[in-house]
Design goal:
Shape of chain A: globular
Oligomer: homohexamer
Number of helices of chain A: 3
Structural class of chain A: mainly alpha
Distance between the termini of chain A: 39 Å
Helix content of chain A: 55-70%
Radius of gyration of chain A: 14 Å
Chain lengths: ~80, ~80, ~80, ~80, ~80, ~80
């Protein structure tokens, strides 16, 4: 299976909302590439979705991915 | 329910104060998207609101979201 | 009570020292917004002020807030 | 053995997907330089691939490497 | 006592080495402002100076302070 | 002994590979400045070189140092 790390192979999105969705997807795809076993990821999802510290760290990673995507899109200013 | 990740689908705000409010909201909406169950989030809120390390990490994420929003707004300089 | 997240609603400061003070205040105000109960914050302060890891993490958040403030002020170069 | 830290000694890639692959490789090569023993790294891989917090932290590092690579490539805009 | 957060109230340094020294000092001065009791800081120093994770985190904060100082100095390029 | 925090007192390197080596060295030199006792550092090395979380955090710090070095070198583009 050819895992794609960047959907559509582009950082350009039409809106900030779509940029945010891309940030979430890109963060997930790195984890998928590191742990390809879906059953294991499912078990770990149960862990982090119920752990405050882990959820905050996920928010941290998404914020960082989004910073790059936002810069790539000129912050959707005009 | 159509969860919105970026309120008003824009990073532009009138003032730094509003930019900061947006940063807090965007950080929360990622957590909501990751853990949609409101009852679970309520329990976790009790945890992180009473844990020094977790509160500092929340501050970290907000600071990172704000960095992007501030850049998007040209730091509200003029 | 109308919590202010950015004192004076501006990232502009006269000097780096004042920028650093603003970074510390902004970091604290996010924690205050997340945990508004002053008694709880007082207890947590006892924890983090005596914990090496927590103090380092506070330094991390302040450094990140300061990066944004410094950029907003053109690094106080001239 | 002459460990290479940056494959092809360049941050330039043709696409975001390849930039992301480079980010993952560069993150791994630092760990390899710090812990050159392949057997130890194999054992640790078992640990982090089954630990939610560790996987999220790996995602964090990749996001940071990618931010640099994306800037180096002008975000593959044109 | 009037704690100074930025020595000389300036981010400008003559060289990268001095910029790095400033980064270390600025990181320490935030911790001093948060925990002003010298005896407590002395005890905590014993902790973090002998803890691998804490030392790495200190390195992290210094790297972030340095990023800002380096940008302020145009990376000492010319 | 006059510990040097930035080898050659410059962020300029000929190639990304050398920039990456500089990032690793600069990260190590901060730890050396914080814990000058070589015997202690040797013991801690045993700890972090066999701990997945610590190795990932080292990768994180190196990525951040490298971001600054890469910017200082205009990403070695031309």
């Amino acid at each position: 299976m050819n895992a794609t790390l960047v959907p559509n192979n582009s950082l350009v999105t039409a809106t900030p909302e779509e940029g945010r969705q891309l940030a979430i997807k890109m963060a997930r795809l790195v984890i998928k590439a590191t742990q390809p076993d879906e059953a294991v990821r499912g078990r770990l999802r149960e862990v982090y979705a119920n752990d405050a510290a882990a959820l905050i760290q996920i928010g941290h990673v998404v914020a960082l991915e989004f910073a790059t995507i936002a810069a790539a899109n000129g912050y959707w200013r005009s």
